[in-house]
Design brief:
Chain lengths: 230, 230
DNA sequence: ATTCTCTCAATACGATGTATCGCAGCAGAA
DNA sequence: TTCTGCTGCGATACATCGTATTGAGAGAAT
């Protein structure tokens, strides 16, 4: 057989490591949301059969965990924060921005304990920033509380964003004018306070709302830190 | 044909309304979690074929929305709260207890805007309790902030609970002793603050942690209410 | 050279959400 | 009374999913 007839060397498929798998999954999720991610499609992106993946992950849930930890690498601040407030504040902001870049993160945030190396690293620098200013227990409570806040706030923000996108209406228009169901409900008169809020409340954009709430919570933490009795 | 031969009157299947569908779905979810809920299984509980359901809901997501709203009926307090702090506090507690009764609620909480009648009713009494003590905008910010906190906190609590259950270990034992991955990571010395926290921190049960964070956030709200400049 | 083992991926399976389609039963007209 | 049309419901069908099983093929060992 001449050289020209020699078949491709079996196209030895790219060695395929965890990193590439996770990257492919994240790309898919960025494009089509979490349920755009199927093991088959991830594998297809890597020119592999679905079962190839099971050498590197043992379940789809594990893949999600790896994706989350990969995003925690984006969240981890590059420089050490100045004080505790900056540490918690930038953690909140960086998480929010990561979720805006990867909306699927909102679906996963808080759904399972995050124990990947990057998540742990984030926890480490955050706790370290609080260490000097509070006892361990207070520090953990502070991290938990602030974390709970921004987790919940981010989820709501993404949820609203999707709802607006799905109806093609801004939150303002949607609430005020045509969100048909809500309008009808408010018109029943059974929800006067809600109706007034929707009608008279000033529209604040999501970022400002996030910021306000965050400041409040950080103020609360500050109060407990200066008077470390609680 | 004699009476005895007459076939069953075709066992006219029970008329099947939304309420019964949602109840069946909730029962399934309570037993087997959210992915124990399939339209086929829900229908089977009601002696119906899967497609019967599509007369009452048009998508599985709608069923989830209905389930959530049904739980909001449990969350809605029966008596009008005394003051704003009680309103927000009991809302948080009742939501948490609902999530402990229906763990799947944690997966859905904050995932989509809750616009069902019961959710609106909850929003109504909450806002109403704040109306007298703050302007609309401050009131909404307060509800959002506290809501974000307890949403996130509940999700984390349920997530931890499941993790403990899955490993068969209490959080204490799991962190301290055998959570193999975490222990190994902490042993690397790359996470001194975390390691110290796990090692020296006092164990607080989930309820106490929830309570503490909630108090902090409510204190923060109180501070903004008395000095309504912000 | 031959056999054996072990790895890896193709095939197979049961389950899912939902579109489609066909039939049963009834209302009305001849 | 019989025929015809219609309507609404549910059985069947389909594409897709996560993952178990299995079979083939490469490399090692005798």
């Amino acid at each position: 057989m001449s050289v020209w007839d020699r078949p491709e060397p079996l196209a030895r498929p790219v060695p395929l490591d965890q990193e590439r798998i996770v990257a492919a999954a994240i790309a898919l999720a960025d494009e089509g949301g979490l349920d755009g991610v199927s093991l088959r499609k991830v594998a297809a992106r890597l020119n592999a059969g679905p079962m190839r993946l099971y050498g590197y992950i043992s379940t789809k849930q594990e893949l999600f965990d790896l994706m989350v930890d990969e995003v925690y690498a984006e969240i981890l601040p590059q420089e050490q924060p100045g004080d505790w407030r900056e540490a918690l504040g930038t953690l909140a902001h960086r998480t929010r921005h990561a979720a805006l870049r990867h909306e699927w993160l909102a679906d996963l945030l808080g759904g399972r304990p995050a124990l990947g190396p990057n998540a742990l690293a984030v926890g480490e620098v955050t706790l370290a920033a609080l260490e000097s200013v509070a006892g361990i227990d207070t520090a953990m409570r502070a991290v938990e509380t602030v974390g709970a806040y921004f987790t919940g706030a981010i989820r709501r923000e993404i949820a609203n964003l999707r709802a607006e996108r799905a109806t093609g209406l801004s939150k303002h228009d949607w609430q005020r004018a045509s969100g048909p169901h809500l309008t009808r409900m408010l018109a029943t008169g059974r929800f006067p306070a809600l109706a007034k809020a929707v009608h008279d409340g000033t529209d604040v954009d999501a970022e400002a709302s996030f910021e306000t709430g965050l400041d409040w919570v950080l103020d609360a933490v500050a109060a407990k830190l200066t008077r470390p009795s609680a």
